[in-house]
Amino acid sequence: MFTLKTQNYGNYVRYVPAFHFFLVPLGFVTLASAIALLFIAERSGMSLLAAALLISLSLMAVMTMFLARTFACKVQDRAIRAEENLRHFAMTGRLLDPRLTMEQIIALRFASDEEWPTLCGQAASERMAPDAIKRSVRCWRADHNRV
Q1: pLDDT of amino acid 128
Q2: How large is the angle between the packed helices 49-92 and 24-44, nearest 10 degrees?
Q3: Which residues sit opposite 140 in a β-bridge?
Q4: Each residue of 121-142: pLDDT tens digit?
């Protein structure tokens, strides 16, 4: 059976190997190769059309890859904000402090219910950096140990 490590400050970052270590480098290598092909074609007197099309397609692929990731992260941010706003309201009867930035809210979501309301107030009043918030979490939330 598959078991997950308990989440903490040292292991909370998630990488998707197929994206981060294969697709992104492959996209950049393809784009760089297409640009090199354009220079080779220009120096040898060959038609630049094929090289220009390859650059265009490579650039579209790289941009699509990053835009898709960006759009997915924005949707995830909105879901996190709604989830944490509801969590705060359920615990305190109030919505989250509007001074909290999205990055702070994302960092706060790792805190256990026992320390979360206090840490929310501290983060807003002291304008804590997200990394400082994560380092302040003493007990990481158990339900974030899921994949």
Answers
A1: 96
A2: 160
A3: 111
A4: 999 999 999 999 999 999 888 7
